[in-house]
Amino acid sequence: MKKLILLLGFILFISFPQPVKAQDMSERFYVAGESAVLRNEVLGIKMPDSRVDKLEKFLDSYNSPLTPYAACFIETADKYQIDWRLVPAITGVESTFGKRIPANSFNAYGWNNGNYRFGSWEESIEKVSLTLKEKYVNRGLDNPYKIGPVYAPPSKTWAGKVVSFMRQIDTTLNLTI
Q: Of 90, 101, 153, 176, whose CB is crowded by the most CB atoms within 10 A?
């Protein structure tokens, strides 16, 4: 009886929910973010967010001026319940991660063909994330393949490039120095 209880306890322990990614099978694209953060909040465990480290390393690998804003991207994405990789990936397609923008525009997103000006990187991250949530995700355009025709017409390659950068962010190693 004692062995049975131990076995059941072990089975419950190893079957504890793990972070998962939902997949939109029609597009073969991962649309959900990591659930580990939510699980840790529910359990009351305060853990460092590994996504920040991952995004910092990724942006730094491109020598991006956005590297110091990795936490801002993630906090804002969580605030608006959008994929934390989406906005940084868009900057990759539109401006080589903020390196090719009009001077002092903070417009790494291609807004108004690059002619839109934000006051700061934080303002731009906030405004773009909010707009993606309200004008795209809330209307069912919840992944780059659905967003692309509206965000970047007439490009046939925009969505695939965004997805590629999102996957690259996902596979960035969390190495400690």
A: 90
Average pLDDT, the chain: 83
For residue 166, give the nearest of 49, 86, 112 by alpha carbon: 86
Residue 38's pLDDT is 54
Instruction: List CB contacts of 46: < 8 A, sequence separation 6 or more.
Output: 40
Give the C-alpha separation, 18 to 147, whole Å. Answer: 29
> What DSSP element (H or E) covers 159?
helix 158-171
**Cβ distance 88 to 103 under 8 Å?**
no
Helix (H, G, I), strand (E, B) or coil at 51: helix
Choose which CATH entry (2.40.70.10, 2.30.130.10, 1.10.530.10, 3.40.50.720) describes domain 49-171.
Answer: 1.10.530.10
Report whether 141 contacts 162 (CB < 8 A): no
User: Is residue 39 scored above 70 in pLDDT?
Assistant: no
